[in-house]
Amino acid sequence: MNYQKMTAPCGLDCFNCQMWLASKDDNLRKTISENYGIPYNMAVCKGCRAHGGQIPFLGMKEPCNVYKCITAKGVEICSDCDEFPCDHLHPYADKAGMVPHNTKVFNLCLIKKMGLESWAEDKAAQVKKTYFGGVFKL
Predict the structure, then answer these.
(1) Does the predicted model carry a pTM greater than 0.85?
(2) Domain ranges in the chain?
(3) What is the top-level taxon of the source organism (predicted)?
(4) In this structure, are residues 30 and 40 in contact, taking their beta carbons and an 8 Å threshold?
(5) Backbone phi, psi, residue 42, to 5°
């Protein structure tokens, strides 16, 4: 798998996303379509890089700010930027229990520390699993 292509510039692991997995699993695609009210033909994603920074099922009319930024700066991933971290990566609380956007900066730090391939193969799935099912520790 091409992890560079399947990791969003903001650090989201597209290769573990249900919408991407639905591209290979018709039952999952049908379930997503029914549960979220997304038309079956739209209940799939190829990763934001493949869509030019736009996610079709979200109805985006232009690329997200992170995608615009990395394109303008000529970097592949936010952790390679001299200004990392920045406000484009702010952990918004909106839908935080459903959408793992709060993991972006943590993932980017791990990518910087471990390298993209090692993070993708050894850590990304665990980050998502912990995010959705882990116990909060103080």
Answers:
(1) no
(2) 14-133
(3) Bacteria
(4) yes
(5) -105, -5
